[in-house]
Amino acid sequence: MSAMNFFQPQGRSMSKGGVLMLMAPFFVLLVIAFLYPILSLLSISLLEPEPTLRHYEDVVTNPVYARVLFRTLRIALLVSVLSLLLAFPVAWVMARSRGPKLAFITACILLPFWSSVLVRTAAWAVILQRTGLVNEALQFLGITSEPVRLLYTQGAVVVAMVHVLMPFMVLPIYGALRNIPVDYMRAAGILGAGPLRSFREVILPLAMPGVLTGFILVFLTALGYFITPALLGSPQEMMIATLISQQIREVLD
Amino acid sequence: MTPHRLLINAYVYGVLIFILAPILVILSMAFSTTEYLTFPPRGFTLRWFGEFFGNSRWMDAAGFSLTIAVVTAVVTAVIATMATYAMVRGAGRLGALFQVTLIGPIVVPHIALAVALYLFFQKVGLSNTVTGYVMAHCVIAMPFAVFTIAAALSSIDRALEDAAMSCGATRFTAFRLVTLPLIMPNVLSGGLFAFILSFDEPVIAFFLAGIRDKTLPRMMFDDIEQNLTPIIPAIAVLLTLLSIAVLIGAGLLRRWAARRARPAAD
């Protein structure tokens, strides 16, 4: 059932007063704790000290801000692309599995909804530290002779963000792939297309809405991401959210 | 199995290991006897759990978070039920407005909401109060609760409520005796979701926190940032157990809902 079906009015209609009374708490909460604060934030950015677009101009032209902005866009894009590369085959296998195998993969993918972002970020901090698992493996394999700096780098941020956000890519793609009948692939094969060609010309176009949804979801979330970059990133290569928190802290002190 | 299918399967299991391994690593460290975090863990001890439960600062934070999460769950479930019911029973233009505004908290990044709330709450004295956190967490949880409850309301047999009202029940009585029991599983799972969302919320907690009272996620953030003690893995184990409990709860609610849905069809 699509989301919109949920919202079809039905049953004996209520009086205007009754509706207003039942909806009032929702709107009061929304105005106090969402609309008013967000709009006043917007108005500060546009109206102080006088009506101006200067602050937005600053963000784009000030080399410090511009660099952070550009870096954030680049990291978000990189995280989205990597997530897509990891997520698509998983969604593909899920769409073609049944029973315990499907249940197992789904359980793994749904893990983020059960586990705290802080716990996952802490896990990466431990794995990537100087005496961590990755460094020990690198030394054991003789790739490096001494611990490499992995934590507090952009790489650490990207890996941990992919870990947290990838599942949000799997689910929409899985949704799209599941709706493609298996016959389509077979039909393409009978008509002479190889697996690659039938994937490119049959599956990919049909999966595109799911891919786009997942990509946009991950990209937008990554843009505003705060916890992981703040804990695993380097202060020299800051992302927007960390910059915001730093500026707020400075004002506070 | 054809070679390329084998390859795809190997790739997928590689990805699953990438997802699972870090979490298993941190959970296993909760039982290590070493003072620093190391893998593989050495020995076996429950000491770090003792340190967590014996430390008043951690306990205060856990209690503070628990209070906020419980209140958030109740308030979200009640407000979402009221508004969703009004909408499904024909709210006209107000219902359309309701649906549009629901999208807001989903699309605005938490960092922007956190900054906006920080500036506003600072002015009105709601920073670092239970009320402030609850309002912020309710806003975030509201869309999920509304969708869950709307799904139940649209699938129950509306004739039951109409029949009760034809027999002379007021709308409130009909709702209390007929509709509410039917949608209860979804109302509860909406509340459960709000509870977990609130208990685990780090971004708003980062901006609203004061020097003294801190939520558990905020305390964890500081610990990870500063020295990363073995208490963090211990908390990870406890949070995981809590999630499993909630999941089992949600599963039971789903089964309950399925049992309720059946008699209406017969």
UniProtKB/TrEMBL annotation, chain B:
Residues 62-250 form the ABC transmembrane type-1 domain. Coiled coil: none annotated. The keyword RNA-binding does not apply. Signal peptide: none annotated. The chain crosses the membrane at residues 12-31, 61-88, 100-121, 133-153, 174-197, 231-253. Keywords: Cell inner membrane, Cell membrane, Membrane, Transmembrane, Transmembrane helix, Transport. InterPro entries: MetI-like, MetI-like_sf. It is found in: Cell inner membrane; Cell membrane. It is a multi-pass membrane protein. Gene3D superfamilies: MetI-like. PROSITE patterns: ABC_TM1. One of its GO terms (biological process) is transmembrane transport. It comes from the Bacteria. Pfam families: BPD_transp_1. One of its GO terms (cellular component) is plasma membrane. Belongs to the binding-protein-dependent transport system permease family. This is ABC transporter permease.
